């Protein structure tokens, strides 16, 4: 039986609406598939333990003597790296003259290479000479009317360790010894050197004391001053009214020693505040150390040499990360993959087993070009590192392109 016109119309209408419904469904699906957010790919990174396993260093013994007390540090490193014996205040004898020099130069600055103002010595300075002789202190001759430069006065008190010239220089700079001592106390307080006390300009007597750690700090301050650092490394100098004087530091120029100041009296025994340039991992490290309380300078110098020979092995150039090193990966849902690699080399010089920790961070990505930065490694290095306790950031990058998700993938992955 042929279809009626009503039936034909009804069937046509159903077909049209069916097609429309299909088209609307396909459009809705496509729009949803193409527009819906696709989760970004998170980085899978190595654990902190895995990244720091190779950074653990071995400790090596430091050859401290069996007598006295001491400490050693290094320029660019915080505080003391190693110490021996009691660390309480102890008489420091003529090492005190380094403090005298630093305090005078704060009041009367002197530029590197300059001689400074002329200082004419008087009968009062001759009196200081005889007073020093009377108290059995180290002294250098004085002639009234002789003219010294400020630098020459510093050489007179630091090289032959002339007590009388330390008095003359302090009086010239401050007007009196008492005024100098007030300035010295303020100078020490301002630098947190609470273990150090000075009661005169020369260090004679048991009341001039310091701790080994304070002396390491003072030694670093001497090296940081271009005038004093150049003077303490002079083996000799020719001075007005005195003639040629020799540096009392018998180790100067040997075993890398570049200074700095001897000290000797009954209360302190033989003492040496020293600096030395040591070869460490193909580079030069300047150490500053002190040993107090030796029986004599022969015993003391032998101890310093043994100490210096043992120190380089305690430093380690640690390779924190190497460019190209893989530390993780990305894998996207749309079948893209790339490694997370270190973008640049990073290393640090540390003392002994200075602790090193690391935190790794990398952002989630939906695309990226090879070489683009995606995160960083943050290394925290303890105080026994060059530059002191610090955080060293190393960038992380992709080793390959990560293409964005494609429309086809979206349509075929509901």
TrEMBL record:
Residues annotated as transmembrane: none
Highest rank taxon of the organism: Bacteria
InterPro entries according to UniProt: Beta-lactam/transpept-like, Peptidase_S11, Peptidase_S11_N
Signal peptide: none
Alphabetized UniProt keyword annotations: Carboxypeptidase, Cell shape, Cell wall biogenesis/degradation, Hydrolase, Peptidoglycan synthesis, Protease, Signal
GO MF annotations in UniProt: carboxypeptidase activity
Peptidase S11 D-alanyl-D-alanine carboxypeptidase A N-terminal domain ranges (all copies): 80-294
SUPFAM superfamilies: beta-lactamase/transpeptidase-like (SSF56601)
Similarity field: Belongs to the peptidase S11 family.
Name the record gives this protein: D-alanyl-D-alanine carboxypeptidase (Penicillin-binding protein 5/6)
